[in-house]
Structures are given as structure tokens and as C-alpha cells.
Specification:
This protein is α+β, with helices and mostly antiparallel strands. Helices cover about 35% and strands about 30% of the residues. Helix 1 packs parallel to helix 4 and helix 2 runs parallel beside helix 3.
Length: about 200
């Protein structure tokens, strides 16, 4: 089983994250930010992973530290669970429709962190979630996982739908990328021999 359990404590947040890349179970999410819990739940469901997140953050300031630090730990947890990355497909891609919205997500578990975020979010908040934190979260994930991630919003008007399409698309693309290809289970998906 490809699993990871990581904890981190700073003056701003105290976070514990568990991931299991090889089986799905009901998510256990307590970030203190309701909309963000909803998005993480969608991500976990569509990626087919088990995810537990417990965060005690300085929400009296705002959600920034909690959301970004969860992204840091999630990226580290995915990377740790992947281990030497033998046999993984490495690449993932998804066009995700959500009512009037169409978003495209492509990713490469390359060892090279890079985020392209061509997404405009019409509203500044959805519920208790500051929408600009969407990009901050994904930037933290890619920086700490060693992943190249491209988001391109083709069109969309409703901010909730747009962000939901990103998280679902990310989940579906990650599911493809982390899948073990049986015929290549002892190989690294790189001509360099290492990712």
C-alpha cells in the first residue's frame, strides 16, 4: 500500500494528513473552512484515494495559512506515498464539465514543480472560502510534490462551479497519473531512469 502520514506544527497551523493512494474510503476532513472541506472531499473521491486532514489554524486572521499549509502537506504526502514512483503512469489529463463551466487539467509527476493557472474567478469568496486561495493551494501542492500542473479554464461564470471543476479535474488527472501500469511495474516512466 502506498501510504503516508505527515504532521506539521507552526505558530499559525497544526496539521495532520493521511493519504492512501491505493484505496478509497470516506474522507475525514476538518480544515475549519467548510467550502474547502467540500473541495478536498471531491478531489479525494475522484482521485480514488483515502484522505484524512485535520487542521487547527489561525482562522481568526483568515484562511490563507490553513489552506496553503494543507497544500504543502498534501504535496509532501503524495510524494512520500509514491516512493520511487516505479510503474506509475506519470501523466494525467482531464476535461471536466460542471454545468456552464469547462475546465482542463493536465499534470505530470515529473519531479519538477511548476504551476500554470489560467483561471479567472469572478467572485472573491464562496461561503467562507477566499477564492484566491485556490491558486495558492495548488501552488503549494505542486511545489511539495514535484509535479507540473496546468489548469486552463475554457469558460465558466459561476465561481463555485469553476473551483469545483478544478478540484474534480485534478482528482481525475491524478488518478490516471498515479496508476500502476502492470506491464511497467518495475520501470520508471522516464528515459533518464529517475523522476
Amino acid at each position: 500500500m502506498r501510504k503516508s502520514n505527515i504532521e506539521r506544527k507552526t505558530k499559525e497551523t497544526e496539521i495532520a494528513i493521511e493519504v492512501n493512494l491505493d484505496e478509497w474510503s470516506e474522507s475525514n476532513l476538518k480544515t475549519g473552512v467548510g467550502f474547502f472541506d467540500h473541495m478536498l472531499n471531491l478531489f479525494a473521491f475522484y482521485s480514488g484515494i483515502s484522505l484524512s486532514v485535520k487542521c487547527d489554524g489561525d482562522l481568526e486572521v483568515d484562511g490563507h495559512h490553513s489552506v496553503e499549509d494543507i497544500g504543502i502537506l498534501l504535496g509532501k504526502a503524495i510524494s512520500e506515498a509514491l516512493g520511487d514512483k516505479k510503474g506509475i503512469n506519470r501523466y494525467g489529463d482531464c476535461f471536466l464539465p460542471m454545468d456552464e463551466t469547462l475546465a482542463h487539467c493536465s499534470l505530470d509527476i515529473s519531479g519538477r514543480p511548476y504551476l500554470v493557472f489560467n483561471v479567472e474567478l469572478p467572485s472573491q469568496k464562496v461561503g467562507d472560502f477566499e477564492t484566491e486561495l485556490t491558486e495558492e493551494f495548488f501552488r503549494a501542492v505542486v511545489a511539495n510534490c514535484g509535479m507540473t500542473l496546468h489548469f486552463n479554464l475554457k469558460y465558466g461564470k459561476n465561481t463555485h462551479h469553476i473551483i469545483e471543476a478544478l478540484f474534480k479535474g485534478f482528482g481525475k488527472a491524478l488518478k490516471q497519473a498515479i496508476k500502476i501500469e502492470e506491464e511497467n511495474k518495475d520501470k520508471i516512466a522516464s528515459t533518464k531512469g529517475v523522476i
